[in-house]
Amino acid sequence: MQAGNSRDPNSDVSARLALLRSVESGVLDSIPCPQCHSNSVSVWFTHPSLNEYRTWFVCSRCAFQMRVQNSERPAYFSADRVDARLEEYDSEILRKCRLADSPPQNK
Ligand SMILES: [Zn+2]
């Protein structure tokens, strides 16, 4: 038995599911934060490339943030909700993934 494990991975999963359920039902603001427990999580989207969407959950009161990769356009995606800074971050990750995927070229 392990003692001193302060983070329960199961409760983390249920917190993530609760956030996902919020966005699926169209609640994009004032979502309860799993970390500081105030209703201060807002949803942001990014669209880093043609078929890539990401959903971000960001708390305005603590450092909590969560990022979800979407295989298709999220139901409540809107350009007003795209955060340029987060989109830049996701674009950068995609770019790095593509570089890692492609075999090194011999000159
Ligand atoms: Zn918080």
Entry keywords:
elongated; 25% strand; four-stranded antiparallel sheet; 107 residues; alpha+beta; 32% helix; disordered N terminus; binds zinc ion; 2 helices
Tally of helical runs: 2
The strand line-up of the biggest sheet is 1-2-3-4
Q: How many domains in all?
A: 1
Backbone structural class: alpha+beta
Give me the strand/helix succession.
HEEEEH
Mean pLDDT: 88
Work out the number of β strands.
4
Describe the overall structure.
By secondary structure, this protein is of the alpha+beta class. It has one domain. 32% of the residues lie in helices and 25% in strands. A four-stranded antiparallel β-sheet has the order 1-2-3-4. A hairpin with a 5-residue loop joins strand 3 (52-59) and strand 4 (65-70). It binds zinc ion. Residues 33, 35-36, 40, 59, 61-62, 64 line the site of zinc ion.
Write a brief caption for the model:
With 107 residues, the chain is an alpha+beta fold.
Task: Give the SSE map.
Blueprint: H1 9-24, E1 31-32, E2 39-49, E3 52-59, E4 65-70, H2 84-101
Antiparallel strand pairs: 1-2, 2-3, 3-4
The structure holds zinc ion (ZN).
